[in-house]
Amino acid sequence: MYIQSATKEFIQELIANNKREFGRTLNEYRNIEIKKGVIEHAEGSAQVTFGNTKVLAGVKITVGEPMHDKPNEGNLITGAELLPMASAEYEMGPPSPEAIEVARVIDRGIRAAGIIDTAALFIEEGKVWDIFVDIYVLNYDGNLFDAGTMAATVALLSARMPKLEGDKVISEGVTDKLKTNGIITSCTFAKASGKIFIDPDGNEEKFMDSRITIANDGKEIRAMQKGLAGGFTLPELNEAVEISFEKHNELKSLMERALGE
Questions:
Q1: Can you tell me the distance from the alpha carbon of 126 to that of 145, in angstroms, rounded to the nearest whole number?
Q2: Contact, 43 vs 161, CB < 8 A?
């Protein structure tokens, strides 16, 4: 308890003085690395690291049934697993509230930006393509939302579209890419000591008062999700939105570079 209190005071003092651990500025991301095609038998996959946070996303495409309220559209299903190997706080079992939130925030941004045209996934009456995006947290050190969004997006943009021959789904040897539209990025901001800063790491997340994630496609805000009990003033929110658009180009460039490799 004493060590945790000392860490809290250390983190809050740094933030109050516009500083962070390891020399980052308040509006600076950690080092980001992206690798695509890391799961051999997935239609698409990507591994993303933000500093010590490591997230893996895999895409699987199968034939399924449409939703009752959308009979002429395919389905996008996003899930997240916080693996015990990633943190001592994670346990095996049903999805935790934290895992559900991660999946929903990532799904909301991708869905709202229209990255996947679900109408194009219609096959015939009662039969559509299901796109499963599975996100696995391999190591936790903060900001799963932005790392997960990047991993899921790169996995989708690099995915290959299987073929349907009769009732058999053919994935081996296909070359056609999954039809996608644009790139979505998310920027997560934390608030502590009265300051707003981007990409909170694990220590900073322990002691932040509030959090907001803003997803945009470079043109419009597509989704926003606030967390924790603290709040943001309107000027703080406007500043975060402006920074999220500036960072979109930076994050998009990293993703395009990885997709081109």
A1: 34
A2: yes
Q: Is the pTM of this model over 0.90?
A: yes
User: How far is residue 155's CA from residue 79's CA, in Å, rounded to a whole number?
Assistant: 14
- Are the C-beta atoms of 151 and 157 separated by less than 8 Å? no
Q: What is the DSSP secondary-structure string of 122-178?
A: EEETTEEEEEEEEEEEEE-SS-HHHHHHHHHHHHHHTPBPPEEETTEEE-TT--PBP
CATH topology of domain 27-260: Ribosomal Protein S5; domain 2 (3.30.230)
Mean pLDDT by 10 residues, the chain (261 residues): 62 93 95 96 97 97 96 97 92 91 98 96 96 97 98 98 91 90 97 96 95 98 96 97 98 97 78
What are the residue boundaries of the structural domains of the chain, listed by start? 27-260
- In angstroms, rounded to a whole number, what is the distance separating the alpha carbons of residues 236 and 242? 10
Distances (CA, A) of 87 to 51, 77, 138, 149, 187: 15, 25, 9, 20, 23
H helical segments located in the chain: 2-16, 97-112, 144-157, 202-207, 234-260
pLDDT value at residue 33: 98
CA atoms of 47 and 119, how far apart (whole Å): 28
Structure confidence at residue 175 (pLDDT): 87
Residue 82 burial by Cβ neighbours in a 10 Å radius (0-12, 13-18, 19+)? buried
CA-atom Rg of the chain in angstroms: 19
The alpha carbon of 208 is separated from its chain's Cα centroid by a whole number of angstroms, namely: 20
